[in-house]
Write a structure and sequence with these properties.
CATH topology: Glycerol uptake facilitator protein
Helix content: over 70%
Order of helices and strands: HHHHHHHHHHHH
Number of domains: 1
CATH superfamily: Glycerol uptake facilitator protein
Strand content: under 5%
Structural class: mainly alpha
Distance between the termini: 17 Å
Number of strands: 0
Number of helices: 12
Largest sheet: none
Radius of gyration: 18 Å
CATH architecture: Up-down Bundle
């Protein structure tokens, strides 16, 4: 029988394999791959802001910027870096009782911290290299200030929706055998995420720290406020909703395999 590469069952088996691989990685490897993921997402964000702020029509600028941003997550997938939002789907291993919830949270916590280090590093380089002119920096600061003043419920709901979109895009990529197909589906999915304007904790890390280092009117406490809620919402969107639904659709087939 031909191997099935798509659908909830194939996706669940793939994520279970990836969960085991992550659990067996050394601390330093997870840390480095997490830092790289934070840097890759930040690189995509650099492109987004440069394009969005340089276009006369704001709507066209946002659309063109959204077409550039996916480069970051494409790099995460193809370079096998560790990104908190998509990695939250390793919760499937908890649902399948193959690992403990506390162990999974520790791994995700490490990846989140590593993503933060990578994003802050790129934010410092961005300001130090002065690659953003006044109009670009003003756009970043405007978005950042808006984010830190959002209501907590709004941030939570927005970040849940964000990772439903992002994790679904990554699921589609996991189902593709050819790298070019992975690139296409992720490009389309992440473009939708950027256009949605929802809260992605790792992208926010870069936005907020560029604004902070660039003299924006926001504090570290306000940054922590946004990121902490966005991290929880992203976890719910990818780790509970997307992975949970796929596991529910696939678990009967997995249970049958266990019995044989």
């Amino acid at each position: 029988m031909a191997k099935i590469y798509s659908g909830p069952k194939a996706l669940t088996e793939y994520i279970l394999t990836q969960s085991k691989a992550k659990a067996n990685k050394r601390f330093i490897i997870l840390l480095i791959q997490g830092i790289l993921a934070g840097m890759y997402i930040s690189i995509g964000a650099i492109g987004y802001f440069k394009v969005a702020a340089s276009t006369v029509d704001p709507g066209i600028g946002a659309f063109l910027g959204a077409l550039v941003f996916p480069m970051g997550i494409i790099a995460v997938l193809l370079m096998q870096a560790e990104l908190y939002t998509s990695d939250s789907m390793v919760m499937i291993a908890v649902f399948d009782q193959r690992t403990k919830f506390t162990s999974t949270i520790k791994i995700l916590g490490l990846i989140l911290i590593a993503n933060l280090i990578g994003a802050i590093f790129l934010a410092l380089l961005t300001i130090g290299a002065e690659i953003f002119n006044a109009s670009v920096l003003n756009l970043v600061i405007e978005k950042a200030v808006h984010k830190v003043h959002m209501e907590p419920v709004t941030i939570l709901i927005s970040s849940i929706l964000c990772n439903i979109i992002v994790s679904t895009s990554v699921c589609l990529a996991y189902s593709c055998r050819e790298e070019i197909a992975k690139v296409v589906v992720v490009w389309l999915g992440i473009t939708v995420f950027v256009l949605s304007g929802t809260e992605h904790v790792v992208a926010n890390m870069y936005y907020l720290f560029v604004a902070y280092f660039g003299g924006g009117d926001l504090s570290l406490i306000q940054i922590g406020y946004n990121l902490s809620i966005a991290a929880v919402g992203n976890f719910i969107g990818g780790g509970i909703i997307v992975s949970g639904i796929n596991y529910m659709l696939a678990y009967r087939d997995i249970d049958r395999q266990k019995m044989h």
